[in-house]
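S.,

Sequence below, as promised.
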Amino acid sequence: ELAHIILGHPTDKKNDPSLERQADRYAAEILMPVDEVKLLVSKLNIDELAKYFQVSNQAMYIRLKELNFVE
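The prediction came back faster than expected:
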């Protein structure tokens, strides 16, 4: 929800799929910075990565997929 506020999304369009994707991407970049993920992806498994970044395994998997580390 914080990403919606930071990005200035209108509150009446909170369920807009494109705004949701934008907010999700923004949050992922804050919580799981690409440079840090790149440094750790070869050293830790997905469970360890999720724990390190304090996110769910699902969020970690999605981030790894977005960065082309998994299919």
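Residues 34 and 71 are 17 Å apart (CA to CA).

Coffee later?
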